[in-house]
From TrEMBL:
Residues in SH3b domain copies: 24-87
Keyword check for Signal: yes
UniProt keyword list: Signal
Protein name: SH3 domain-containing protein
Coiled coil (residue ranges): none
Domain of life: Bacteria
Signal peptide limits: 1-23
């Protein structure tokens, strides 16, 4: 029982420790930019950073599109295209190649991160309103471009106006003629 409790506690605390233990890289903002509560513009803005603000970069998502940063005492996320880092003595925009070259860690945004950094914000209780791991639609939203049940958007496989449907809106385009040949209607 004690081992189970220790493992459960470690499972809850480990993401917080891992987040705090990440190496930091100094960066700078390319322009005035909103720091967000998560990796996307659907998350609330925490602060507006001025151009050339000095920030600490803790890591980026696997595609290096959004990065976990701190500025003054605030912690949040900005798009990597707004971050300059130093590589070979020069300030360069943070791209996947630059991120790998200077050793920026890959980090994951999750609810443990949300709990660790945003408990004092008015929008903190609304995690489910903001968190969308599958883009804006979700894995099975009917309008999701890769929805498994709607592979022939927007018409469906047998809709009469589907561009590849063998029948036109008024019946078959080609049908057997009563004299044995095929002809167009």
């Amino acid at each position: 029982m004690r081992m189970y409790f220790a493992r459960a506690l470690l499972t809850l605390i480990l993401p917080l420790i891992a987040t705090a233990a990440l190496a930091q890289t100094t960066g700078y903002t390319t322009t005035t930019v909103h720091m967000r509560a998560g990796p996307g513009t659907n998350y609330p803005a925490i602060a507006t950073l001025p151009q050339d603000a000095t920030i600490e970069v803790y890591g980026c998502q696997s595609g290096y599109d959004w990065c976990d940063i701190s500025w003054n005492s605030a912690r949040g996320w900005i798009a990597s295209s707004y971050i300059l880092t130093v590589n070979n003595g020069q300030r360069v925009v943070l791209t996947p190649q630059v991120g790998v070259a200077i050793g920026i860690s890959i980090v994951v945004f999750n609810q443990a991160y949300w709990h660790a950094h945003y408990q004092n914000y008015p929008w903190y209780p609304y995690w489910n309103r903001y968190y969308h791991p599958y883009a804006p639609y979700g894995p099975y939203h009917p309008y999701h471009p890769y929805h498994p049940y709607h592979p022939y958007h927007p018409y469906g496989p047998y809709h009469p106006y589907h561009p590849y449907h063998p029948y036109g809106p008024y019946g078959p385009l080609y049908a057997p003629h009563h004299h044995g040949g095929w002809h167009r209607h």
